[in-house]
Amino acid sequence: MIKKTLNKLAMVLGIFLMFGIIMFPEMRDVIGKLMDTLLKPLLGWLPIHMIIFVLAAFTGLYATIVQKYTMDWGLMKRVQEKSKTIQKEMREAQLSNNAAKIKKLEGQYAEMMGDQMEMFKQQFKPMLYISIISIPLFYWVYLLISQNPDATMIFPFWGEQKLDATVFWVFQYWLFWYFMCSIPVSQMTRKALNIGGMPLDTKV
């Protein structure tokens, strides 16, 4: 009972963090400032770009571990293999104008939709758990960058750039660096845990 209650509370918190920010944009600064009271001491130990590296690596590791133990990877593999098989057989049936086989495969595809819906549920649940950690950290980094507009970092090919400068559109350098740190850690952790690629990406 306690486990189920905690699970529901975690999911509600995850939903709030994922969608509540859209309805209440001011919560971004509130969350950032709350995290600032906990994480600001890091500024005395590391430069900002290394803080981003550590947090991005941590969220990448955390997200992968959550996915490992909250998703049915056997189901994912079975559905993906079944989908490929049906698609291959459908192409062959269409090329040979085999109407009977096409009708049979359409029925199999309709049955598979239930499994695909279960796959979506399998992917959505860990997103809520991940958001509990990743979104507060992400908004603290956002606050940190806004408080240190002169923070810079040297990038390959681009040279020294301000972290709040724009790479393209609204995509800033600090955000680019964040994802460049998070993705390799996620991939290495997946390899180590033998869970392969993630069909739906959930890091902030």
Automatic annotation (TrEMBL):
Its main location: membrane. The chain crosses the membrane at residues 9-25, 45-66, 127-145, 165-185. Pfam families: EMC3_TMCO1. It is found in: Membrane. SMART domains: DUF106. It is a multi-pass membrane protein. It comes from the Archaea. Keywords: Membrane, Transmembrane, Transmembrane helix. GO terms for cellular component: membrane. This is Integral membrane protein. It comes from Candidatus Methanoperedens nitratireducens.
